[in-house]
Amino acid sequence: MHVPSPTRLQYPDLHRLSAPPVIGDLCPGYRLARWDSPADLAPDCRDRLHHILRDLAARAFAADHSGYWRNRVSNGFFDQISTLALVLGPDGAPVGWGGYHRRRFASRRALYLDAAGVVPAHRRFGLSAALMAHFLTREVLAHPLSATYVVLRTRHPAVYSAWRDGLGRHRVHPHRERPLPVRVRRLAGDAAAWLGDGPRLDPDTLLVRDAYRMFDGDIYGVRPQSGDEHLDAYFAREIGPKDALLVVARVSAPALVRILAGRALARRSAARPPAGVRHRGTTRDGVRRSVPTGAGAGGLNPGARP
What we know:
This protein is of the alpha+beta class. Helix 1 (about 45-60) packs antiparallel against helix 2 and helix 4 packs antiparallel against helix 8 (about 255-270). Strands 1, 2, 3, 4, 5, 6, 7, 8, 9 and 10 form a ten-stranded mixed sheet that branches. It is globular. The longest helix has 19 residues, at about 45-60. It contains eight helices and ten strands.
């Protein structure tokens, strides 16, 4: 199968942008278009990307998110986000997206993972996990001598489970069997205040009530599940339709190197199908293969200050 050149964009709506993206390989058959300064995009280019993001979200979540994206863009989304990326499929068309905000919470370096997703037909190839690994590699290895905290809001149990499986449960909070460390509590409080969720955050459980208040309708067409019966029951019981869990993960350079080495080993030992070919033995978007993901197949992290 022909794979487009990694230096060229095939999708018409991505041509002649005022701030061209950095183009690179993500995983076999897929590429990444990344903007490290989205604020440099001209208004007409922002409009084009707005429509791409809106349409991808509708396909990824089987729900109408147009009002959410309209509000985010009008409130300065492109000026606020530090890095924005599109996942490009074998034919060059966008099939997923993600991004993050580079912040400091409680005087600690942190990344807040923005809204992200992958359309259903491409979830079996681990794209979300690859995208999160790409983001973490850029940011964590740039500061290898100190930890980086990753913060996200989600109501998808598989997202929470994947971060715990990938990094180890002692590095991912909240943990229902242990109280929150003071540093994590402070960091979560700062992050919630920045997001406008301060009064809605439970400082003991990190549940955020009405976190998805910006959505007029359903967030998901189908309620998300992880396959872990106890975890799914907890999310169903404690996290309402518009609530979220504020997840705080501590990522060090050694931990990230172990994750990347594990991914490389898994790629060598597993015979992957060509891009676009269904493989019955694969799982949806790699969520259960111990690779952290920010939003994944169906997770959602509402963006900052929607």
